[in-house]
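Researcher: We're teaching a course module on how sequence relates to structure. For the next exercise, students receive a sequence and then see the predicted structure as C-alpha cells, so they can try to spot secondary structure elements on their own. Here is the exercise chain.
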Amino acid sequence: MLVPFPFEISATEGRARTGVLKTTRGDIRTPAFMPVGTAATVKAMTVDQVKQTGADILLGNTYHLMLRPGPERMERLGGLHNFMRWDKPILTDSGGFQVMSLSGISKLSEEAVTFSSHIDGSKHVLTPERSIQIQADRLGSDIVMQLDECVAWPAEEKRARQGMELSARWALRSKNAFGARDAQALFGIQQGSTYENLRRESSERLQEIGFDGYAIGGLAVGEGHEAMCEVLDFAPEFLPKDRPRYLMGVGKPIDLVEAVYRGVDMFDCVLPTRAGRHGQAWTWDGPINLKNARFAEDQDPLDMGVPCPASQDYSKAYLHHLIRADEILGKVLLSWHNIAFFQALTAAMREAISEGRFEQFRRDFRARHLKA
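Model: And here is the predicted structure for the students to work with:
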C-alpha cells in the first residue's frame, strides 16, 4: 500500500515510542499534541503564538467549518491553511463526534448523519463521502479522518457493536472516496467502547481496508481516567506498530503521559484553551486556579519551566487581576501558557523516551499530578 507520509520510530521504551511523521508540510514529532483550532482559530491565540509554543500540527473541526464559513467558500479562499495563515500540517476531524455530542439535533442512518445547525437550524447531511470531500478537497487538510459513529458512554455491548460495525462500513466508504493521494493521508478510527473483543474486531476490519494511520475513538466521553487506561492497556496493541496511533479528544496531562506509556503517538483536546479562558493554568505540579485569592499578591511567574512569555514574564498576581477583572488579556495569556505547557510536556516525553528514562519520568509525573 502506498503510504504518503513515512513514520519513523527513533526510540522505544516498553510500549512508549518517539519518532517523526513526515508530511509534505513539515515533520510532526511524536508524541505530538495538536492544539484544537475548532473554527479556523485556536481560541484566544494568534497563529504566531501557537507556532512559538512548538506545535507541529493543528486540528480543525469539519462540523463547525462546514456550517461557517462553509466548505465551498473555504475552497474559494484557498483552503484552511491559507485562510488561517498556518503553513504546517493540519488534521481535520470528520464531524463524527457531533453524532454523539449534538445528538439532540442530529439523526443517524446507514447512509449519513443529518444535522440541524446549532447556529440557525438549517439542515445539513454528512455522508462518509461528503466528509472526505470537505476535508480533503475543500479544506485541504493534510490528515483526513474517516466518518465514524462515536457511541455515548456507558454503552451495552450490543449498542457498542452497532456503532463499531457502522464505523467499519463507513471506513470502507471513506477509503473509497479518498482514493490514493500523494500529499494527504487518511486515518481510520477504531471503535468498540470499553469492549476488548470489539476493539480487536474493529482494528482487524480497518487493517483489511488499509489506512495511513489509525485513531482510537470513543474515549474521553465520560468513562474517567482509570477506565480509559484499562481500554488503552489493549486497544493500541491491536493497531499496526509501524503507523501512527492517535487518541482522539484526550486530554489532561496525566492522560497523555499514561497513553504514551501504552503506545499512543498523537493527541488533541480543547482543554488547554478552555481551561485558560476560565482561569485555570496547568503546571508541572498540576493545575492551579488563578481566580483564587492566594495569588492576589504572588509576584512569582506562572511556571519558569515552560519556555513561553506567558509562563515566564507575568506575575501570578497580575494574571489573577486580569482573570478577576474579566480582561481579555488574561484569557489570552493563560491559553498561551497552557498550550505551551502541553507542548513542553510532549517534548519532555520525547526526550525521556530517547534517553531511556521514560518510566522514571512517568512515575515522577504521576506522583505530582495524581495528588493535584
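Model: If you want an answer key for the exercise: The first helix runs from residue 47 to 52. The chain has a mean pLDDT of 95.
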